[in-house]
Amino acid sequence: MVQYILKRFLYMIPTLLAVSIVSFIIINLPPGDFVDALIAQRRAESGENVTPEEEVGLRKFYHLDQPLPVQYVDWITGIILEGDFGMSLRWNRPVDQLIWERLAMTFALSLSSMLFIWVVAIPIGVYSAVNQYSIGDYLATFVGFIGLAIPNFLLALVLLYISFRFFDQSVGGLFSPEYIDAPWSLAKVADLFSHMWIPMVVLGTAGTASLIRTLRANLLDELRRPYVTTARTKGLPEYWLLIKYPLRHALNPFVSSLNDIFVNLVSGATIVSIVLSLQTTGPLLFDALRNQDMYLAGSAIMMLSVLTVLGTLFSDLLLAWLDPRIRFS
Amino acid sequence: MSTPVDNLLEINNLHTHFFTDEGVVKAVDGVNLAIPRGKTLCVVGESGCGKSVMARSILQVVDRPGRIVEGDILFKPGAGETTDLAKLDPHSREIRAIRGKDITMIFQEPMTSLSPLYTIGNQIIEAIRWHMPVSKQEARQMTIEALRKVGIPRPDELVDAYTFELSGGMRQRAMIAMALVCEPKLLIADEPTTALDVTTQANILDLIRELQTEMGMSVMFITHDLGVVAEIADEVAVMYLGSVVEHGTVDEVFTEPKHPYTRALLRSIPKMSLRKKARLDAIRGIVPHPLNRPGGCAFHTRCDFAQAGICDTLVPPITTLASGRQVRCLIYDENQPVSFESFTADDDAQEDVQERAISEDVMLKVNGLKMHFPITAGFFNRVVGHVKAVDGVSFEIYEGETLGLVGESGCGKTTLGHSIMRLYDPTAGDMLYREENGATVDLAKLNQRDLKRYHRDIRMVFQDPHSSLNPRLPVMEIIGESLKVNKLAQGKDLEKQVRDLLERVGLRPEYIRRYPHAFSGGERQRIGIARALAPNPRLVVADEPVSALDVSVQAQILNLLKDLQAEYSLTYLFIAHDLSVVAHISDRVAVMYVGKIVEYAPTEELFLHPQHPYTEALLSSVLIPDPRARHENRIRLEGDVADPANPPSGCAFHPRCRYAQDRCMTETPHLRETRSGHVTACHFAEELELAGVTVQDEIAPIEST
Residue by residue, what is the 3-state secondary structure of B301-312? Predict the structure, then answer.
């Protein structure tokens, strides 16, 4: 097992290297660079023109005059040797500061929406499968499909309206204005939770709906397996055998999709986050890509890949722990 | 038949129906049955006759959308106690207290009947703890004791094993341990040996019988294998389309079948007979779907004795004959003018097989063939060993003959078949194939491009007719593919040829546009055969072509294979584990063990005078469908086929051989002629006096009434 994990970590190195090169190239593919974007922005904002000399100076300042491979090597050696992800050109701050700050918030959000999904979807999914074609099943299916069909941003807007109109809360964000810059306190945490439910529900509905459908389908397959009949002939009560046998078998696909959470940490729910003006990593990456803020964008993509690879490893290990067939093969 | 006091369980007029969108499927439709205390009742019939549903109804574990709609199931565990199981709520505490405690069940496939996610110990302990007030530790001790009792080696270790770590036989033993640990009064066994090797099957049957005597329980044993019935039954109930058509003691039913269905079933099995019969007496057609149950007597559509106007209109009542036997057939109803002429006619009256011309020419000469698969491990996938699936095999197939290849699963039969098809690149050896024009070519050395034309000459029929046909292609494409690929036919001509092929294998040409799911198992196997025959091959490798089929359908397919062989002078390599089938169809038989051929002789010679102890053990485990042929001193082959990655030193069979001596552990025996025309790989072939089969011709013929 240790050897297996070691092997997986070694395989990660070439994967990540390849990802870093490809993402660096792709970020630089669109015509123009950060300086062009900066000049265009200044011109639009204040009408001031930048002389060609200034432009050259800016390029030199940002090291954009170097050939692309050199820029890449500078960036990647910085990461590997010093853990320095470079400066965000736009924010003029170290990239890692920017990302870490938002990562914690994103993690809290992803985790809570996942818990929301599981707590709501698993009982409903089980009920739907066990009582296939009952009124409850049809109801769950109906509500589920509505959840799937409504675009998340629309739901976000509706909930924002409701929370503003009926609960008198500030619109958007994860904190009320008075807490944004306040130091952490119990009151701030309470404030966070009072804001968290909207993104949690918004991000959760689609996931809940699809989880109900998948769990129902998986469980319907498992319920017909001979080992369920065997368990029944042993005289086990229905609820107990349901949890111990078919449900446990039916959960495998979810464990293997757990790595999605890690991916969502960085890229997930960008549109919802923009609508709700959440300080998560999604909008940050989106902004960086628009502005050709290459170090920020590149580092975000790198982190995304690391988390994807780690997430996959994590879910594989979890699967092996849950399923002896995988552990022994 | 017996006084009611003696019965542990009585089923009266049981109806279990499935309420589907297509209509009500009457899977069990009026079953009357009694299980005597301490005895074994075998329920026999083709698949689709409602045997399993009937058994599951007893414990009310019928899958949705089925439920019991009528009838009683009277369970009488002790004097004066009677519970009607059919009246209990399937979720009620009362029925749960009986399940797993008083009445337990074991199933066909122990791999899928036990969960792979928990250890066998976990699953057995759970059964104990729901029914008995014992601690975890005590339950574990009871489990280990139960595993020891069913013959699992090192039970204190294997209690923590998962199902996939055990062989099929061991899994079924664990399943039996689970069923018996609470000392039930009735064990319901639903085809418990169907998925096992003959040798393992014999051991499991012995085990069930021993435990039954020891614990004094009753057993309801469901099977489609009449050999098994003859071996273990006290009483037999024959089921057809949801009702019991005949019920009597095992001797009565086998020696004097009263119902035409029972008789037809008995006649459709290949017998261990050395008089070569051209054909088996297959039952016509297949079991109709219960939705299309024929009116009148349900069997009349397939009955040789059905009389128009009577059998198709009147539902036969249960008639109790003088001896106490029960039968559902109009002939025994005194009010009906039905009679069987020639019902008891001697079934030896059929023609003997005409000698087929087997040429002197060798069609395929396999020489020192080896097929090793590397085992990799470690960091850099180093090769740390080889699975020697086929390890130096030599034999010849003569033009026009059928060579049978037998052995337990895991002995390399299928790999050998696949190697001949060149689905693999053999590790060593050659396969000299003699073409029609007399030229010889070594198939083992050809590259894929040159092989293409030989894929027309040598074709394969697979075991599982369900998974070996692409479900997304119509029959036209499945059969026509090889013709199209080889540019043998196209367009109108192609369609005509496929239609002809369908007719040749006994299917209606109109089915050409249908997809595989529209066919029954036997019909699919016919499609598989048509696919193999399409490019007009010379050699057909048939890998267990009938082992997934019901006896009646098996007989139809064996007849078809024989007819086609005569008609198109085909040569067969027939791979099977069922020795009765092999005896019926083969001219010569090769026995394989751990990648090597251990014995090789003409069929009659091999079956009467086996020279290798492995062959003797295989022959001894064949269950002959005649209760008088039960033998007590069956050779039990313990353990499993040796691991081909790490075969035992010397003779690979020595750890399981009851005649093994020191020499066998060190010196590898080679194939040599031990009798004329008979080669064996055993050091002591000449000295040993091994027993062949009891030939059924020597058992007294069935008496006529």
Answer: CCCCCCCCCCCC
Flag whether residue B357 sits within 8 Å of chain A, measured between CB atoms: no
Looking at the structure, do residues A235 and A124 belong to the same domain, yes or no? yes
In order of B371, B372, B683, the CA distances from B668 in angstroms are 19, 19, 9
Instruction: Please state whether the predicted TM-score (pTM) of the whole model is above 0.90.
Output: no
Question: Is there a cis peptide before residue B610, judged by omega within 30 degrees of 0?
Answer: no
User: In terms of domains, do A296 and A264 share one?
Assistant: yes
pLDDT in tens, B194-220: 878 888 888 888 889 888 998 889 999
Q: What ipTM did this prediction achieve?
A: 0.79
User: A96-110, A309-323, B665-679 — which is least confidently predicted?
Assistant: A96-110
Residues A163, A261 within the same domain: yes
Token pair for B253: 């039913």
Best of A219, A223, A230 to disrupt the B interface (most B CBs within 10 Å) is A230
Size of interface A-B (CB pairs under 8 A): 78
Query: What distance in Å separates the CA atoms of residue B230 and residue B240, rounded to the nearest whole number?
Result: 19
In a domain, A6, yes or no: no
- Chain A neighbors of B98, CB-CB under 8 A: 235
Where is the domain boundary, A82, A115, A131? A82
Instruction: Tell me A79's DSSP state.
Output: I
Q: What's the rounded Cα separation, in Å, for the pair B259 and B298?
A: 12
B109 interaction partners in chain A (CB closer than 8 Å): 226
Q: Are A269 and A156 in contact (CB under 8 A)?
A: no
Binned at pLDDT 50, 70 and 90, residue B261 comes out as: very high
Overall number of domains in chain A: 2
Indicate whether A168 belongs to any domain: yes
Q: How many C-alpha atoms does A133 have within 13 Å on its Cβ side? A: 4
Q: Establish if B174 touches chain A: CB-CB under 8 angstroms.
A: no
Among the listed residues B267, B263, B390, B282, the one whose alpha carbon sits nearest the alpha carbon of residue B329:
B263
HSE-CB at A89 with a 13 A cutoff on CA atoms is 24
Say whether B372 sits in a helix, a strand or coil.
strand
Complete edge-to-edge strand list for the sheet that includes strand B319-320: B103-106, B186-190, B218-223, B40-44, B235-240, B243-249, B326-327, B319-320
Where on the phi/psi map is residue B309: left (φ > 0), alpha (ψ -120 to 50), or beta? left
Domain boundary among A82, A107, A122: A82
Using the Cβ of A184 and the Cβ atoms of chain B, whether some distance falls under 8 Å is answered with no
Nearest residue to B572 via CA among B546, B604, B611: B546
Beta partners for residue B541, in sequence order: B460, B573
Residue B445 neighbours by CB distance under 10 Å? 11
Task: Look up the domain containing A302 and give its range.
Answer: 97-322
- Per-residue DSSP letter, B626: -
Mean pLDDT confidence for A4-33: 83
Is the same domain home to A150 and A60? no
Angle at A315 between CA A313 and CA A317, to 5 degrees: 70
A73 and A112 both lie in a single domain: no
User: Does the pLDDT at position A264 exceed 70?
Assistant: no
Shared domain check, A145 and A40: no
**Beta carbons of B127 and A328 less than 8 Å apart:** no
Q: Name the one residue in this structure whose structure tokens are 């394989």.
A: B592
Quick one: A146 and A275 in the same domain? yes
Kindly state whether residue A14 falls inside one of the protein's structural domains. Answer: no
- Residue B161 corresponds to which amino acid? A
CB atoms within 10 A of CB B655: 15
Note whether A123 and A175 are same-domain residues: yes
* CATH of residue A156: 1.10.3720.10
Q: pLDDT tens digit string along B283-323?
A: 887 788 878 888 888 898 888 888 888 888 888 888 888 77
The answer to whether residue A87 is domain-embedded is: no
Peptide bond into B65 cis (omega under 30): yes
State which residue of chain A sits closest to B187, comparing Cα positions. Answer: A233
Q: Does A1 touch chain B (CB under 8 A)?
A: no
